[in-house]
Amino acid sequence: MLSLLPPLPDTVPALVGLVETSLDHRSKDAPRSPQVAEAGIVALALLGDRAARTEPETLSRRVTHKGTSRRMDKALAML
User: Fold this and answer.
1) What local confidence, expressed as pLDDT, does residue 70 receive?
2) Of 12, 13, 37, 58, whose CB has the highest number of CB atoms within 10 Å?
């Protein structure tokens, strides 16, 4: 829903925090919720804000989950 609203100064940091928290490995096997992380990446791509364009590039260097990486590549291609 955040991507449908006008961007506020704290929208991008909130979405980045959502992505990072969702990809946190609580158990050593898998991230918490890769689907939520992918939704956050899509929301960042849909914002169209300048800060929202740079964050997926920064996140793509740190993300190791394959499905999320593919979603990130698609989001970067949209930008």
Assistant:
1) 84
2) 37
